[in-house]
Amino acid sequence: MKIGFIGLGVMGRPMAGHLIAAGHEVFLHRVKDISQHLVEAGGTALDSAKAVAEAAEIIILMVPDTPDVEAVLFGANGVAEGLSAGKMVIDMSSISPVATKDFAARIGEKGASYVDAPVSGGEVGAKAASLTIMVGASEADFDRAWPLFEIMGKNITRIGEVGAGQTAKVVNQVIVGLTIEAVAEGLLLAKAAGADSAKVREALMGGFAASRILEVHGERMVNETFEPGFRIRLHRKDIGLAMEAAKALDLSLPHAASLAQMMDRAMAKGLGDKDHSAIFALMQEK
Amino acid sequence: MKIGFIGLGVMGRPMAGHLIAAGHEVFLHRVKDISQHLVEAGGTALDSAKAVAEAAEIIILMVPDTPDVEAVLFGANGVAEGLSAGKMVIDMSSISPVATKDFAARIGEKGASYVDAPVSGGEVGAKAASLTIMVGASEADFDRAWPLFEIMGKNITRIGEVGAGQTAKVVNQVIVGLTIEAVAEGLLLAKAAGADSAKVREALMGGFAASRILEVHGERMVNETFEPGFRIRLHRKDIGLAMEAAKALDLSLPHAASLAQMMDRAMAKGLGDKDHSAIFALMQEK
């Protein structure tokens, strides 16, 4: 199949690589030295998002944030200018659920369909083709995109209509961020009280406090090793999406709001490029 | 072995029952109609905590809160009056880690040893003899108490010296409570955004948001069924212990403090005897 792939960052490079390796004809935009290997593997470099949309049947985006998606889609020489009826845009970036619905409507005006399919699993999951993919799409569009998702991920769920994938991703980031904060408060208390926090973590893994966060990030807190992993700076962006959605929905998310404040403070203190478990280090400071 | 058991509530009855069934000679205090079956099974009812401490070699406490433990130990006709050198007190209640160290020191003056061994797993775990037991004790005292723990629980960990068991339990309650709040914020956002929260929960169970809380309490929130389970009223007591410990240790636990406020509001709104996952119901109210 003719596939466009725009956004060749730390996530996009291995994802595009898997599509090429699976035998698809992949059209790339913004190929740099670091992504030149994708051309050598069989990808085709084109000089605009518009050209990619003209050449491909399905165009995948994997860019940092909402404004980047908007620019790639609707900027000069953007995807929208190259689209025609029957084509499909799949946005795998993690962006605003609210903006996603707007983008989908504008892409729909071209006769093309729109799927939001943000992922979790990070660089490791992207390389191993084991990403969790949360999809917002009509059932027909989901079926059409499925063979591509299968090449890049493992745990693939259609959450609902367009926007639902981004909603699920934002929900994921809220729960992950707040669970990290929960584990940090707990292990800080253990340590301050003079208990062996490694043993506390171990005992708690047998009960209702058990979580992937207590297992993985709890261990980082016990050892106080905070190399990323997933950077506070990036997680802060996602909590911002949650706060934006909450405002649009007249919803109060008090602990997510507090977490955003903690993350801002962590960044101001130079912890922005540490793993998100470094919230523990911030809270531990006198 | 001659064992005293004081505190025949919803947890204590099955725990004492397991000790009797295992062939121990068990001395009971405050036997009522609802605990009469323990006497029929072979237990001996005595009319004071002092008498229990005189008759038994190891005295187990399973009462509601810190003041109850203090009254049973040091009140008139209390355990301390009946203790002699070489005996052991095991407090399996969930109480203040700070007060625990004080109680242990005062019991130590009698030549007796003190072990704190709070549990998690609730009524179900008590009946099934599958409680998680978090122990604060010297190694020698832990070894001496071990055969009794094995009769009542499964996941038994010595966290450290006296007080460490209560610390671990408080840490557990902080992490469980805050993870419930985290899942509630996430699933509220999913629902408000119009996503199918059951599908969001399912998709998230495959990634870093996965936890026992998302699994069990997340399902309660999706179905909005909040019968206990573990009551908000009881969890509030434990968060109070965390706040007390934090104050004593000059530690700030901002989300635990906020959760205490939410739980107070839930109780004021008549949700105190609902499951702790009913924090979702509180937050959902307009």
What does this structure look like?
- Chains A, B: It comes from Devosia chinhatensis.
- Chains A, B: One of its GO terms (biological process) is glyoxylate metabolic process.
- Chains A, B: Belongs to the HIBADH-related family.
- Chains A, B: GO terms for molecular function: 2-hydroxy-3-oxopropionate reductase activity; NAD binding; NADP binding.
- The structure is a homodimer of 286-residue chains.
- By secondary structure, chain A is of the alpha/beta class.
- Chain A folds into two domains: 160 residues, 3-Layer(aba) Sandwich (Rossmann fold); 118 residues, N-(1-d-carboxylethyl)-l-norvaline Dehydrogenase, domain 2 (Orthogonal Bundle), CATH 1.10.1040.10.
- The first copy, chain A, is built from 14 helices and nine strands.
- In chain A, helix 8 links the parallel strand 8 and strand 9.
- In chain A, helix 9 crosses helix 12.
- The longest helix of chain A has 29 residues.
- The radius of gyration of chain A is 20 Å and the shape is elongated.
